[in-house]
Write a structure and sequence with these properties.
Radius of gyration: 18 Å
Distance between the termini: 24 Å
Order of helices and strands: HHHHHHH
């Protein structure tokens, strides 16, 4: 795949991801304020659904958004078996985080203390920070993935040096 096409698709992917992230965070704040739903339950259910969907998809690269599918196909071809291992780790971690969210809800279900209070300024700062971090990490990983060969990717992942990929 041509690096220019790949960069264009990555830019589209980041723009769509930013939009989806903003929509999700707005839904999170609105639902937790308007409805009597705990933040922990909302995030736990979201992560659990995402984990189950990824588990059921297996090795499939089908995505709802075509740009995401093209990038996933490229990553699968570039990373080989490591792609599947990384996908498994992602849905396992989503399941673990979902479990922690449900545990948090369980421990504080009868608490009179307000655990999460919406402050618009704080939510704007959190949203802005999350978007910046997601973009930085996505940019560095995609640039390094373009440069690395499959053998180098296996060495980085097997050597437990995945964070060096970010550097």
């Amino acid at each position: 795949m041509d690096p220019n096409d790949l960069r264009r698709m990555r830019t589209q992917q980041m723009a769509i991801t930013n939009g989806l992230l903003i929509i999700f965070l707005m839904l999170l704040f609105v639902i937790t304020c308007i409805m009597d739903v705990s933040l922990f339950v909302f995030v736990g259910v979201f992560l659990l659904i995402q984990s189950i969907m990824d588990l059921l998809k297996g090795e499939s690269t089908n995505k709802f958004i075509p740009v995401f599918e093209q990038i996933t196909i490229y990553e699968k071809q570039k990373m080989g078996k490591e792609w599947l291992k990384q996908r498994k780790m992602i849905y396992i971690w989503n399941f673990i985080l979902s479990s922690f969210m449900f545990l948090q809800y369980y421990f504080y279900r009868n608490s009179e203390e307000v655990l999460f209070e919406v402050d618009v300024t704080f939510m704007f700062i959190i949203t802005f920070t999350v978007i910046i971090l997601v973009n930085i990490i996505s940019f560095y990983i995609s640039e390094k993935l373009i440069e690395l060969t499959q053998r180098q990717i296996c060495k980085v992942i097997h050597g437990k040096q995945f964070f060096y990929l970010l550097l």
